[in-house]
């Protein structure tokens, strides 16, 4: 239940307004002027303030200014007398949520309060999302603590509140749609529709109708008027995935809609205004696509106000543990399983695989394993029989970003240098042999300090001891 503070210097008006607002289910308190109101805001922490514009000691505009200095989420509704529209506009300019004129219309006030309550809730949700990002490396559906993902999160946070177009690039399966959803969820449009359309999945003869809509009789089979994706996304966000697959004629029409904010349905005589934020995505190099004539240059420059490049999974392998755990939790809920996590052996295998299908391939692999296991920890036996056919990334490969924050800085310095931390592998080396060489080389670089070696390898001390026992037994047998 939202708390509403009434700031009004006239006693009868103050009491009557408080009783009216309380009758709608809000918790209310009152203050006789701006100075008292400021004290109540600091002590009682209301989410909404209804304040008169003209009051002794501190008026409504000064109170609004002081509230903004507190950096607290409060929606301020300004009450103005007839003929004070200029002051109301000034209040809106410096941060008021809305204004209402005297005598107060209860119906309009109730509507404003309902809208303000929703806005306060959305702002709180956004603040929680930002806090979660800083604490856990999670931004909506996106997960990652690597430098590349943190840079993407920071860019998304910065540009989400604006209405500018964004072009998201990256290989298939890297999470381009997830990035688009994060942009939408962090924007003022988050309560409106998010519509995604894959341009490559729609036949060329139908794509213009799908995107812009059509009138009845516009073409054979058009038996009724139909709204396109732009109208379905009104006041929200439209994702045009695989924009490079859109026919040239449709690209030209899209460019005009982006510039004029109006569209013409197929068969329509008049244009329809639209308010939509457009995000485009492609798995092609957009500049190469422009050079090849697949993407109009003027459309590319119009869409590419900001570019977000989603890196392939092989370039941020250190994010796999957190991504995999999140996927396991999701799959447990979806398939009614109770999988606890992954074994160290399986995790090492996942982090030394190039993932040509990127995060999408990882998700499919995890989902299959969770369904097979049902409960307990996922192990090597839960991987597909042909897993690894695409190759193996040696531990010294530059794409492998080993998580090192938990390793003491002094040890990182002693373990590096002198060129002793490189493991060279020949083509055809088995995974088990590569793992053995990595473990023994790490032990050598730490002067046989098993605790520190386990930290650097990202495995438990017990797992390291078991591996060393296996190598010793194999040596004895030989």
TrEMBL record:
Positions bearing 4-aspartylphosphate: 52
Keyword Phosphoprotein attributed: yes
Name of protein: Sigma-54-dependent Fis family transcriptional regulator
UniProt record, GO biological process: phosphorelay signal transduction system; regulation of DNA-templated transcription
Originating species: Terriglobus albidus
Entries under PANTHER family matching the protein: C4-DICARBOXYLATE TRANSPORT TRANSCRIPTIONAL REGULATORY PROTEIN DCTD (PTHR32071:SF57), TRANSCRIPTIONAL REGULATORY PROTEIN (PTHR32071)
TM annotation in the entry: none
InterPro entries: AAA+_ATPase, AAA_lid_NorR, CheY-like_superfamily, Homeodomain-like_sf, HTH_Fis, P-loop_NTPase, Sig_transdc_resp-reg_receiver, Sigma_54_int
Keyword ATP-binding: yes
Domain Sigma-54 factor interaction: 142-371
